[in-house]
């Protein structure tokens, strides 16, 4: 467990805004919390509202827009190299079906049969022949086929360069995807992930890094391997968080990444339900709260916000969240600097 837990608890003592500016220099410099009154802005797969996700170009744009962290989802190749894709099934975000039409197969992943092309069946050399495509049909398709698939090492190198150029520490927030599945194939994610952070000088408690996962065992293992803070992701189907024992989570993780509907439920028709006490309970256990995913497009924005993504962002900021995942960092930062009263902070 990382050593800033006591400072995190202090931030939730009822003086959050003042506490952010007066807590220890080590905590402020670590990148684990904001030194202003706003939540951390985590670029979900990069600036993925604008460019194909999980590309160096999308990460670079996110930093240009001002994001605090860039978020790569981590999978692995046949020859054991970590790369960034949302899923190990590659056809949804690359041209693999055109490049390797005969390599289609069927696998069982987390109990579900999945048909497609999978990272663990390709070497890094083969992966580097692929190009990224935009996953969502209503987003800009003009950049399809332009950008390569990056390795995690390349993302860490980019983070270092962008930090130098921006004269601020850009954080990296990797998610381990299907770690138990890969471990069963003899391709564990934990060791190469920690090694990559070590090689980049980031395997330390005060580095601007979080590691996130939906799997508990994966985080428990990582908690023994690194002092980097860990985030337990929580899906929206888990009884809206009511059954979660946050004190148990706090034994191996430093925060939670809940689906945003667990905090402020909204019906399919866009009607708002009563907000949950999830943020309050997580904070009481000393856990950070980084909900996902904030997207500005009408396809994702509940009707209650009347087409204004800033209204949604401000509603959550007022509830005292510590950070959030967004596909549009520029919109989040503009909202936090111009629109949100931050009354709950």
Description:
The chain has a single domain, classed as Phosphatidylinositol (PI) phosphodiesterase (TIM Barrel). The protein is 31% helix and 14% strand. It is built from 14 helices and 13 strands. A 4-stranded parallel sheet has the order 7-2-1-13, with helices on one face. It has a 4-stranded parallel sheet with strand order 9-10-11-12, with helices on one face. Strand 1, helix 4 and strand 2 form a beta-alpha-beta unit. It starts with a helix and ends in a 6-residue tail after the last helix.
CATH topology: TIM Barrel
- Portion of residues in beta strands equals 5-15%
Mean pLDDT: 88
Instruction: Please tell me the total number of domains.
Output: 1
Helical stretch tally: 14
CATH-assigned homologous superfamily: Phosphatidylinositol (PI) phosphodiesterase
How are the strands of the biggest sheet laid out side by side? Answer: 7-2-1-13
Counting DSSP E segments of at least 2 residues, the number of strands comes to 13
Largest sheet: 4 strands, parallel
Q: Keywords for this structure?
A:
345 residues; alpha/beta; TIM Barrel; 14% strand; globular; disordered N terminus
């Amino acid at each position: 467990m990382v050593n800033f837990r006591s400072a995190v608890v202090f931030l939730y003592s009822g003086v959050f805004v003042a506490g952010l500016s007066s807590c220890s220099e080590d905590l402020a410099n670590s990148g684990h919390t904001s030194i202003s009154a706003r939540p951390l802005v985590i670029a979900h797969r990069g600036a993925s509202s604008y460019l194909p996700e999980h590309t160096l170009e999308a990460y670079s744009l996110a930093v240009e827009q001002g994001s605090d962290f860039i978020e790569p989802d981590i999978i692995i190749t046949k020859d054991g190299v970590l790369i960034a894709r949302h899923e190990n099934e590659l056809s949804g975000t690359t041209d693999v079906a055109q490049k390797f039409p005969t390599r289609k197969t069927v696998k069982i992943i987390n109990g579900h049969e999945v048909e497609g092309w999978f990272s663990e069946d390709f070497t890094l050399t083969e992966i580097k022949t692929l190009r990224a495509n935009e996953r969502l049909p209503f987003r800009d398709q003009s950049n399809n086929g332009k950008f390569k698939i990056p390795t995690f090492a390349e993302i860490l190198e980019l983070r270092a360069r962008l930090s130098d150029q921006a004269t601020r520490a850009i954080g990296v927030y990797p998610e381990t995807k299907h770690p138990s599945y890969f471990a069963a194939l003899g391709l564990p994610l934990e060791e190469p992930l920690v090694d990559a952070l070590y090689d980049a000088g980031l395997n330390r408690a005060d580095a601007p890094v979080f590691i996130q996962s939906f799997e508990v065992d994966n985080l428990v293992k990582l908690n023994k391997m690194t002092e980097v803070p860990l985030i337990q992701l929580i899906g929206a189907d888990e009884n809206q968080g009511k059954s979660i024992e946050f004190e148990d989570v706090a034994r191996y993780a430093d925060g939670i990444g809940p689906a945003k509907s667990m905090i402020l439920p909204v019906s399919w028709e866009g009607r708002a339900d009563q907000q949950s006490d999830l943020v309050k309970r997580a904070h009481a256990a000393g856990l950070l709260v980084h909900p996902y995913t904030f997207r500005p497009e009408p396809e994702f924005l509940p009707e209650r916000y009347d087409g204004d993504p800033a209204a949604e962002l401000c509603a959550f900021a007022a509830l005292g969240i510590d950070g959030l995942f967004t596909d549009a960092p520029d919109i989040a930062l503009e909202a936090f600097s111009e629109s949100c009263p931050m009354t709950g902070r």
